[in-house]
Amino acid sequence: MRILVAPDKFAGTLTAVEAAEAIAAGWHRHAPDDEVVLAPMSDGGPGFVDVLHASLGGDLLAVTVEAPSGDEVPATLLLVGDTAYVESAQACGIHLTRGELGEFGTTVGVGTLVLTAINAGARRVVVGLGGSGTIDGGAGLLAALGADADVSLDVGGIFLDGITEVDLGIARSLVDGVELVAATDVDNPLTGLFGAAKTFGPQKGLDDDTQVVMDRYLEQFAAATDRRLALEPGAGAAGGLGFALLLLGGHRVSGIELVADAVHLAEQAAAADLVITGEGAFDFSSRAGKVPAGVAAVAATALRPCVALAGQVLVGSREMRALGMDAAYSLVEAVGESRAYGDPVGSLTELAARVARTWSS
């Protein structure tokens, strides 16, 4: 058999590349003669650059950027021809804020990555949006590119209060002639009931009152720039980084679809007998632009079965099939929670070997 392995990261334990390698090792433990092809995936969040580098090659450029707190952190962007891939989570990810005080975090570091890519000769800059710990509407990114306002743009969203004027002239001139692409797994607007503050504020450490306050400040930011763009799908991605990229003339694409196209997932699925995907928690949120649903859709188009290996499976069989899966297997159920978290590589390898017994002819 020919097996295509296309998982997302297992958040907090395994990168997508590590997960794919563990699944392949487990599969070969039971079926050593099967051909296993690895295509680790990302929806634009953490692991975006590593996944694309594993599939596309290219040159990695190390950069030191400003973290949400103002400290310096290392980051890496990927150059493939005249296209640069930037992973916003490296500069403003929730792992850097520990899910706390997101309203005080800045996205200046993401702007530095974009500027570095342009200075390196990129004429197309794809920014993966996901896993952010900040909520500043992308004001920090704009500041790093030279934008100015009647309040400070580079110190966090909480300081957008009272903003009435924003000058984007320098920032827009810097990106003139450069295609900016926001790759994201969500299509939320910047503000409102389904906006950045109300939808993603809790995971960034915002309590109910602070969510209301930040939604108001982001509305002020939108009024000072472009209210219409604030309502566009994806404007609220990564705490509003999507909005900043739209303000600079960028456009949004589905992160999973972009990565799938880049790694030729459709062609690889058509050549496979079985497609395997996976992620940390397989639940109903997996249907909204996430890797498993995207991979399952590609497999369905190719008329190939698709199964998921996940840290936890939190949907029933009917819901699983609605998400496009023929089967889903839980790491926690197979080996127990303590081992699943304590030895994720060994546990996933063991689970993959068990699954191979069922699916490998």
UniProtKB/TrEMBL annotation:
Gene Ontology MF term list: glycerate kinase activity
EC numbers for this chain: 2.7.1.31
A Pfam family of this chain: Gly_kinase
InterPro entries in the record: Glyc_kinase_flavodox-like_fold (IPR018193), Glycerate_kinase (IPR004381), Glycerate_kinase_RE-like (IPR018197), Glycerate_kinase_sf (IPR036129)
Keywords, ordered alphabetically: Kinase, Transferase
Sequence similarity: Belongs to the glycerate kinase type-1 family.
Protein's name according to its UniProt entry: Glycerate kinase
Species whose genome carries this gene: Nocardioides simplex
